[in-house]
Amino acid sequence: MLLSKIKKKTLSIIDGLEVVDFGFALPYSWVLIEGSGGRTLGVAMTLPEEIQRYVNSIDNISIKEFIERLDSFNVVERTLALAAVNAVSQYYLELSREEINKDVLELLPDDPGKIALIGNMPPIARELRKRGFEVYVFERNPKLWDRDTYSDALEYHLLPDMDVVIASGSCIVNGTLDMLLDRAKNVELFVLTGPTAQLLPEFLRHTIVTHIASMKVVDITKALLGLKLGSFRGFEGGTIKYIIEVP
Predict the structure, then answer these.
(1) 148: domain range?
(2) Each residue's pLDDT tens digit, 1-19
């Protein structure tokens, strides 16, 4: 399981890092950490449709306690754990000028073939269709379906035929990332995207993921206020977009 490997790698680099604050919230859960190099904020999409009965198994609030639950079958624990992993990732992430303020669509070739969107991302889907590309949109949450959306149950059958995959980072939270990587093994481009995809690219080395397109929080006060107020895009005023290649 990839999450177990990511957990092990993250635990090896958390010395000197402490949890300052955290929140399990809508639309994003978040963890704020601090080390000698300053503070960083990690987020993870909260999926209320996935939540069942929750019994808190965290005894002490610490970065280690959170990260240990990254491969938990409890989605609440897994969400907070991913936010913590993302906070650690952002602490160590270094971006070049060329990687900042880029759009995921810039990665596509002129003739990308069949494109799969994992998670209904209407702005991206509209732009891809506007360009005349063949797009397949998969979504687990029925509330986000439209007439052009496939159930995520069809990912298993259709992904082997895809040439490009653009996957929302929420696939890490809902536990489908391993299946996606296994079934999409024929793709030439696999982009993990969205605020939830703040992982260090080194964590995805030796997988078929080629790029991460995410957001780095540069104004923690502004971003944290937006998160606490529950605004879907409120925290983005304190962030910058980036695209980074997986080594």
Answers:
(1) 101-216+240-245
(2) 899 999 999 999 999 999 9
